[in-house]
């Protein structure tokens, strides 16, 4: 029976992403967005059942926070290699692992690139036509501008992950 040394234990619990401050910011933003969505939804339900009044306008904030949480969480998932992938191909085929990794990254970059392009076009159209939100009357581009911006962050994370995966033995 082999003994586990103190250095082995330390290496096993060490998170390689500890020094990544952006990852910490992403995790905090995603958690804060999720908490705010829960509070808004809970408050809306309580007010609706106790007063017969609805805070329907808060849906705008909830949708924005859901978008924020999704994109920031996706970026963090790519940074920590926790994103959805076909593990049977990526993990078990040592011979073609780099090919599958490259194909998955290219497909991901294509989809994210389309999201940046169409998200930027949507934001520009909303700005150009002075589109206002239905509930609060805010300019809608204030909410949608974050879609292409945060998707660019995801693209940077995917490229970084691809570089690390292709560099690994």
How would you describe what is shown here?
- The protein is mainly alpha-helical.
- The protein has one domain.
- It has helices spanning 6-13, 21-51, 58-79, 87-92, 97-128, 141-144, 146-167.
- It is elongated, with a radius of gyration of 21 Å.
- Mean pLDDT is 84; it is low at 1-14.
Structural class: mainly alpha
DSSP strand content? under 5%
Q: What percent of residues adopt helix (DSSP H or I)?
A: over 70%
Low-confidence stretches: 1-14
How many helix segments? 7
What gyration radius follows from the Cα positions, in whole Å?
21 Å
Shape: elongated
Helix and strand string, N-terminal first? HHHHHHH
| Alpha carbon gap, first and last residue | 29 Å
How many strands, what sense, and barrel or not for the largest sheet? none
How many beta-strand elements? Answer: 0
The pLDDT mean sits at 84
In short:
The protein is mostly helical.
List keywords for this structure.
single chain; 169 residues; mainly alpha; elongated; disordered N terminus
Strand and helix layout:
Elements: H1 6-13, H2 21-51, H3 58-79, H4 87-92, H5 97-128, H6 141-144, H7 146-167
Helix pairs in contact: 2-3, 3-7, 5-7
């Amino acid at each position: 029976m082999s003994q586990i040394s103190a250095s082995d234990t330390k290496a096993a619990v060490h998170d390689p992403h500890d020094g990544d401050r952006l990852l910490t910011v992403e995790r905090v933003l995603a958690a804060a967005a999720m908490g705010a969505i829960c509070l808004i939804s809970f408050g809306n339900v309580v007010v609706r059942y106790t007063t017969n009044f609805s805070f329907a306008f808060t849906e705008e904030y909830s949708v924005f926070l859901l978008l924020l949480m999704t994109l920031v969480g996706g970026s963090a998932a790519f940074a920590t290699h926790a994103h959805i992938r076909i593990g049977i191909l990526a993990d078990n085929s040592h011979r073609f692992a780099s090919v599958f990794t490259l194909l998955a990254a290219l497909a991901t970059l294509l989809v994210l690139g389309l999201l940046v392009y169409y998200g930027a076009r949507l934001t520009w159209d909303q700005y150009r036509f002075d589109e206002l939100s239905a509930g609060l009357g805010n300019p809608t581009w204030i909410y949608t501008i974050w879609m292409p911006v945060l998707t660019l962050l995801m693209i940077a994370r995917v490229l970084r992950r691809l570089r690390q995966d292709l560099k690994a033995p």
